[in-house]
Amino acid sequence: MKTGIKIALSIALLSSLSFGGEQFAMSDADRAMYAEMLENNPADMMVANGEELLGEYCGGDAGLAKFLGVSEDDLPKYIAGFPRYIKEFKQVVGVDQVLQGLMSKNGHKPFKLKSSDMFDMSAYVKTLANGEKSNIDINANKHMKEAYALGEKTYMTPRGGRGLSCNSCHSSDVIGTVLRTQPLPDLSAKGVAVAATWPGYRMTKSSLRTLPRRFQGCMNNALLAVIPLGSPEMVALEVYLTHQAKGAEIAIPGLKR
Ligand code: HEC
Q1: Does 223 score more than 70 pLDDT?
Q2: Which of 71, 109, 167, 174 sits at 20 to 30 Å (Cα–Cα) from 193?
């Protein structure tokens, strides 16, 4: 893994977390723990588990490349462009759904999208693209265009008890504002670049999480109806935000509060 890149990116994140005037997002103790974890991201072990699972259930990197119809050499660039429209699935899918398809093709019962085994395995696959630039193409075909439009709509529409949308807290005019001690993060390539830093290790949850799982965290916190993993709306939301962070250099697993 390209640790140098990872550390540079995470230090940028650390300084953005201390933003927000007197109210710091992290206590000094948390900050010290964060610095220590940078040296040794606990998620590295989970990613290693993911690599083993991919070998056991999917034929490793070679099996995955074959299933996707690309050479092993082209796999990193190809992975850096997910979610994608894949013909066999007849829909736009994330890496985790591809892995489910491959597992079942190989005669295994697919891991659930919400299982830690799936988080580990899809995180490992995403690390194959480390050092590449996130390169999603929302104009690749009409399915991607539709997914982007649906994602934007899902992001902008107030869907909860408090009348909030994702955009209420993540639009460019509120970024950096402090909400209950947490500065509102910029999700684009100018900020935390979600597409390039998830799956990530969440220190507050002591576990590795995928980007859609992180979305569900905000849905729960902000009382927005929780969208199921793998649903067209959820994949579309991932397409929308991945596009906002397009061009950022991928450094996975991220380390998150
Ligand atoms: C009530 C305000 C609020 C709403 C609404 C909200 N968020 Fe958030 N979001 C936050 C805050 C605050 C954080 C930072 C929390 C932290 O650091 O633990 C955050 C963090 C995130 C992150 C992680 C950023 C990182 O560090 O990588 C993602 C991704 C995200 N939100 C996506 C969404 C999506 C998608 C929606 C809509 C479904 C949404 N949020 C709705 C307040 C909100």
Answers
A1: yes
A2: 71
